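Sequence and structure are kept together here, with a separate record for every protein. An example record follows, reproduced without changes.
>
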Amino acid sequence: MTQLTKEIRLRSCITGTLRLLLTTLGLLVAVSAAAQVTLSNSVQKIESFVNEDGQVQRQLVDAVSVIPGDELRYTITFSNNGNEVVDAGSVVITNPIPESTEYLDGTAFGAGTEIVFSTDGESFAAASELMVEEDGSEVVASAKDYATIRWIFGPALEPGETGHVSFNVRLK
């Protein structure tokens, strides 16, 4: 069985309005030649509003226009469009925290995934194990230190199956 590796990078560029630019960075997939994993991605703004009961609720809306302070959700959807199973642990999505944003702690999500973080885009660890140097000593990194998020999808990905991962940021 031959191995196929794909790399897709996701980066955002923010200039008054939000544009999503696709370049090569993120999805690494080792699958047989007959399997085909594809990606789609989106970015939405999270707006708060008061409902008729006076409770504050949040909703996702199109990120047509954003300003500093806005909260955004990035979602990457992956699908096996081939006719063979993608091996367990083979779908690995690596995504940088977009420039001019700050990751919001605890918002990385991905059902069936192990989520790890990096401060340099090269070394990854669980949030509780990721260290940075601060005032001459090593301390546990905080969300503002994260530069990259990686999701490792644990289960096999059956033909026709789809999954998604997401994270939230605040626009600086």
